[in-house]
Amino acid sequence: MSVGPRFFLRSGLMRRMLHDVHGRIIDVGCGDGYFLAQLVHMGFECVGLDVSAPMVERCRERLAADRVELVCGTIQAYRPDRLFDAAACGETL
């Protein structure tokens, strides 16, 4: 994945915004799992959602040791079994 300074700035801003949030979070458009790994490190129970099967597989490889639910599909089709405390959507537009 090729990223620039804006990606890291955005990731830092999102981490700071979530500093006082705890619990379950969904990362919509999780890509290869870079930000999702940061959320795991922050202590969240995480779900990663992406429409790209290759990206979900890369994410699975990155987070193999972590307990993260990964879903390949659209947000419109996803039916979670329970609610989230927060949602992240940083790389989808």
List the helices and strands and how they pair.
Blueprint: H1 5-17, E1 24-28, H2 34-41, E2 45-50, H3 53-62, E3 69-72, E4 86-88
Parallel strand pairs: 1-2, 1-4, 2-3
Protein described:
Helix content is 33%, strand content 19%. It is of the alpha/beta class. It has one domain (22-88): Vaccinia Virus protein VP39 (Rossmann fold, 3-Layer(aba) Sandwich), CATH 3.40.50.150. A four-stranded parallel sheet has the order 3-2-1-4, with helices on one face. Helix 2 (34-41) links the parallel strand 1 (24-28) and strand 2. The chain is globular and about 30 Å long. The model has no long low-confidence stretch (mean pLDDT 91).
Short note summarizing the structure:
The protein has 93 residues and is α/β, with parallel strands linked by helices.
CATH architecture title: 3-Layer(aba) Sandwich
Order of helices and strands: HEHEHEE
Corresponding CATH superfamily: Vaccinia Virus protein VP39
CATH topology: Rossmann fold
Task: Tell me the strand percentage band.
Answer: 15-25%
Q: In order across it, which strands form the biggest sheet?
A: 3-2-1-4
Shape: globular
| Continuous helix count | 3
Count of individual beta strands: 4
Rg = 12 Å
Number of domains: 1
| Uncertain residue segments | none
Helix content: 25-40%
First and last CA, distance: 16 Å
Average predicted local confidence, pLDDT: 91
Largest β-sheet summary: 4 strands, parallel
Mind telling me the CATH class? Alpha Beta
Structure class: alpha/beta
